[in-house]
Amino acid sequence: METITGHGLKRVVKYLRAAAFLGLFGSALLVLAALLLLMYVKVLGAPPLAVPQSTLYFAEDGTIIGETSYGQKRYWVPLKDISPYLVDATISIEDRKFYEHSGFDFKRIAGAALADIKAFGKVQGASTVTMQYARNLFLEHDKTWARKLREALYAIRLEMNYSKDQILEGYLNTIYYGNRAYGVQAASQYYFGKNASELSLSEASMLAGIPKGPGSFSPFASMERAKQRQGVILKAMARNGYIKGTEAEKAYAAELALTGRDPHRDLKAAPYFQDAVANALRNQLGLNERAIALGGLKVYTTIDPIQQEAAEKQVQAVISPDSEIQAALVSIDPRNGHVKAMVGGRDYGKSPFNRAVQAIRAPGSTIKPLLYYAALGQGYTPSTLIRSEQTTFRFENGRPDYTPHNYNNKYADGEITLAQALAVSDNVYAVKTHLFLGEDTLVETAKEFGISTRMAKVPSLALGTSGVRVTEMANAYSLFANGGKKVEPTLITRVETANGKVIYENEEIDELVLDPARAYVMTQMMTGVFDTTLNGYTAVTGGTIAKGMTRPYAGKSGSTPTDSWMIGFTPQLVSAVWTGYDDAREIDGVPEKSYAKQIWVRFMEDALDGKPVKAFKPPRDGVTGVYVDPANGKLAVKECPVRRFTYFVSGTEPVEYCTDHLEHTHSQDGKDAQRQKGGKSWYKQLWDWGD
Prior knowledge:
Layout: H1 2-44, E1 55-58, E2 64-68, E3 73-74, H2 84-94, H3 106-119, H4 129-138, H5 145-161, H6 164-174, E4 181-182, H7 184-192, H8 201-208, H9 214-217, H10 223-239, H11 245-253, H12 271-283, H13 289-294, E5 298-301, H14 305-318, E6 326-333, E7 338-343, H15 368-376, E8 385-388, E9 414-417, H16 418-424, H17 427-437, H18 439-448, H19 470-481, E10 492-496, E11 502-505, H20 516-527, E12 554-559, E13 563-569, E14 574-580, H21 590-593, H22 595-607, E15 623-628, E16 644-649, H23 668-676, H24 684-687
Helix pairs in contact: 1-5, 2-8, 2-10, 4-5, 4-6, 8-10, 8-11, 10-11, 14-22, 15-17, 15-18, 15-20, 17-18
């Protein structure tokens, strides 16, 4: 019996030794596996913390004008800008040992597993904040063991590479609070209309209870359940030492002012401008759609909310609601090219087509200042005389004849100056000048002014028959307003990533592309559009709106059978307005023909209200101002009934005094004889085209 017992003991000892060996071996394997896992996690490195966030568009004054929501509201705020009450409430209810464990609360996991076994089902969660953040950040919410393993792996990576505060910040910025609000900032704005940093204890404890079940514990889903959940959280906060019992009772009893509205969710400010900004992000900065939509970018734009409101208001106020005509407006700061207002149509909801940047329409006579700028470099001056009469131009090589017509078929039937031709918009003068300079001159000059739309080299180009964009014309006139400095239409000044890294910053152009003297002379001539002293055989084209002006403006109107334009400026602001039908039908109604001018003058007066009245400043040298008789362009004498101070490029100012109004020339016959004294103009070669 003893022998059997001895053998039994030996066998037991043998088994124990084997078990111990296997245990040690198994432990070694587990340690090795753990070490390999840690090494693998270390090799993988820190997982990125970026999450899909709304890209925000800011106006020049820092206000938010819009965002890319795509059904979810996401913002990222640093932990220091989140109410401490919300931080404490979240830790108390979600993971009270968050700052103690290394990503896994094993005691809590064991307790949850035991509870599940007793209930024969899943009744208690054990995910820590780190585990929930890993799930929210990287993984789909499927309930599989594979997902659980990936979640655990991500949790380890987070704990190994980030501080507790970084993990908590990420968690609070990604958790779902219902009503399309992801993160504490979006939730705070939606539920209480305030930033996350401003939440009270009562508000924070209510908000912290929602993530457990947004469909059940949101105060908009059930105030009763939301209050119950709030009470549980407040007691947990008191139990964990974050607040006193009396504070919990007071917070629970406090009435909450719920808003249920995201202040940015329904923003529709400057919708055409926002589309143009998104297009610039794609085409100029090379960002893809996902980066724009969900990259959490901060896009700082040039838009001026006051000017934008004025632009939209005047378009709606001037155009009859019964009219089908469309409109576009662009205003630009000529000093830097910043677009301050943009209207691409009358109703974005009905038509998002942006006529300010996408439509190519004939600019009419608004192209003439560019033509005459070129002419000033080829011997022309504001006093240059050319005969205005109905003319048919005949060409060689089988080209068809061309007969331009003035508005209402009115002509001077005599010579007029360049200054007056621009003011009354004489078409014959323009075509003669265009052909004298060469049909390619205006095409090349337009390029100098930044116009990239292709133009046709035809006689009628002088009358604006080749289409351009509204933004191009506004920008072109900016070069007159700023004295010849190159600018480009600018919508964006800076773009930052969600973490504050600047990925784009606009740099101003420092390049002179026009002759400052010629640019200034042209600007002064364009003030004549509103000056009735330049009335001749017909009235100046801006006379109908001059009475509503409270400051000096320069500009030019333009019209074709299908398009109506007004472009003008001060030293601070340029604006271009177009009106017309999308289907290019003719503008027949008299009121509709005046819409562009009325919108322009009302907008400019609104946009510049309260700003200093500035005159156009001449360059330091290169221009000379003298008084001339507007009718003949000669130096005015005291006998001249009308005198106008006119600038010339230095050295080109007139030297001959007007004698038309002296006593011995008062008769009409004498005046005609005096005007013809000295023979015909040196531009006689142009008349060879005419009948």
